[in-house]
Structures are given as structure tokens and as C-alpha cells.
Amino acid sequence: MKDEVDQLSVPLRIVRHFPLYLNWIRERISEGIDFISAAELASAMGFDPVVTRKELAITGVIGTPRKGFPAKELEKAITICLGWDNVKEAVLVGAGSLGSALLGYQGFKEHSLEIVMAFDADPRKIGTKIHGVNISDVADLEKFVKRSKLQLAILTVPKDFAQDCADKLVSAGIRGIWNFSPVKLTVPTTVHVENADLAAGLAALSHSIR
Fold first, then answer.
1. Which residue, 4, 32, 110, 189, shows the most beta carbons closer than 10 Å to its own?
2. Residue 77 and residue 60: Cα distance in Å, rounded?
3. What are the distances in angstroms from CA 97 to CA 35, 138, 177?
4. How deeply is 23 buried, as exposed, middle or buried, from its count of CB atoms within 10 A (0-12, 13-18, 19+)?
5. Nearest to 89 by CA among 156, 173, 26, 10
6. Per-residue pLDDT tens digits for 11-27
7. pLDDT digits (tens, 9 = 90+) for 127-168
8. What is d(CA 95, CA 119) in angstroms, rounded to the nearest whole number?
């Protein structure tokens, strides 16, 4: 099984595949299956089996001819490679409709992500709770992030406020931003931005079904 240094070297392309693998493997484990075939996994994902075998090899788990990979060991190894074996704390900025929905999403717990605080500029929301998460004044964002030493943030603010919020987050020490705002953020190369462009996704779907 890979150590911490090796985890950091896993290519981003493979990191994006691993959650898909993990869900499928967990389903097989729940069915009582003890070994996972790379060929079956690749077929289920629509991937090249040679590529899947190479990606699974990164976990350090050894497969057995005609049996495959031990399912539970592979599940654990992928979980560690993804960094999901330890709880990651995050802050959410923008407690509007989308932000509120994300605060109530229970699936984050399965991936060891906990939103510890949310921030908003709306006086009607400040001081309240949404799905059990406290909503604080966005003016206190930087102070809270610095004090808590958080590294992850979820950004769900309107586009006119996105860059300003991103600047505050970066200044406070945030290293990764999951950006749901419809704007391309400008951040230092040391900060990773993962864009969740809902409009682009909808446009692609609309185009494909025309």
C-alpha cells in the first residue's frame, strides 16, 4: 500500500477515476464479493482494462491471477490514496439556495468532508443555522480561516463577489477552492481551484439531446 509521499504523486487523471472505482468496489463488497477483477471494473466504467490495471497498481495492492484484487484491501488503499481516511474540514462561503443545499448534503460524510462553518453577507442568515451549520458574517471569514488553519473552501457566491471572496480565502491560507460560482478565479499557482460549472454542464446536456 502506498505511503504518504506516493499519494502526493498520484496523477490528477487517476484521482478523478478513483472515486468511480471506489463506489463500484463498495457495491461489490456489499454483495459479499471478496475479489475484484480489473477487467470487470474497467468494463463497468467504460475504460480500457489495461489502463485500469495500471491505475490500480498505483495503490500498491497486489492482484492474483484468475482471482483479481482483494476487494476490502483495494477499497482501503484507494480511500487512503484519495485522502479520505482522515476527516477534512472545510468552510463554505455563500449560504444561498445552492450553498444551503450543499450544507444539507449527507454524502460529504462518506468522503470524510465536514463543513465546519458557513459565511454569508445576508443579515437575515447571520447568526442562524442551516442543516446544523452555523452561519457567520462574511466579514469574519479571514479571521476564522486563519484561526482554524483550514485549507479547503467551497465557494457558492454570485459571480460579482467570487473573486473578492477567493482573494480573502487565499490570503487566509486556503489551499483548495471548490468553485461553484460562474466565474474563472485568479489565484496563485499554489492554490488549486476545482470548478463546478453548472451552466457549462447544462449546456453540454442540452446540446447532446437536441
1. 110
2. 8
3. 42, 17, 19
4. exposed
5. 173
6. 888 888 999 999 999 99
7. 999 999 999 999 999 999 999 999 999 999 999 999 999 999
8. 7
Question: What digits encode the pLDDT tens for the residues 71-112?
Answer: 999 999 998 888 887 779 999 999 999 999 999 999 898 888
Cell triple for residue 71? 476487494
State pTM to two decimals: 0.76
Give the three cell numbers for residue 167.
482573494
Contacts 24+ apart (CB under 8 A), 157-160: 157/93, 157/94, 157/96, 157/181, 158/94, 158/96, 159/183
| Burial of 166 per CB tally in 10 Å (0-12, 13-18, 19+) | buried
CA distance 158 to 153: 15
